[in-house]
Amino acid sequence: MHPTPPLVAHPALLGTTAHASPLTPPTLGFYLRPRPHGFAAHICASPQNLCAVRQLARAELLAQGIEDEAVDSAQLVLSELVGNSVRAYGDYVPLVVEVYVTAHGVAVNVHDPDPGALPMRRATPLDSAEAEGGRGLGLVELLAPGWDVRRSAIGKQVRCRVPAEPGWD
Q: What Pfam families is this protein classified in (predicted)?
């Protein structure tokens, strides 16, 4: 039995427009599932797959009428959450990354396989010149106030909402 090849992020699949930026073809360990106003990407965390999901998020959010600043914020939140999972569980951890637009902003959710380990914000000030790390969840809180963590069928889900006005009614 041959594995199903990963779905390629095609503009028609996600409702993106022809002027959206071209997407990096996904690598192994990348499965894309469209959802209303966004997508869910099942990935094995790797630099290539993070790059592909960031590009996909940018193209989809711009196609949904989200302004550049909110798109940049959503991409940063996505990167921080995936990075936290990689730091906690190692390279190639299986993740589900959801990005979609709601009437209340851009939802960025990352599911990982461990329901017990909860992300915790360190006391590192965002403007600390000496700190080498520990600012990620502070940035997430700044860009997506009120993020939370829930258990999910996969393990746990970190849920964020980046404030933004959708470009549709």
A: HATPase_c_2
Supply 23's token pair: 């997407």
Residue 33 CA to residue 128 CA, distance in Å, equals 39
Whose structure tokens read 């990167």? Answer: 79
Q: Please report, for residues 4, 77, 124, 126, 127, the alpha-carbon distance to residue 142 in angstroms, rounded to integers and kept in the order given.
A: 39, 10, 14, 10, 13
Confidence of residue 109 (pLDDT cuts 50, 70, 90): very high
Domain tally for the chain?
A: 1
pTM of the model: 0.78
Task: Print the domain residue range for 71.
Answer: 25-123+132-162
- Rounded to an integer, what distance in angstroms lies between the CA atom of residue 127 and that of residue 135? 9
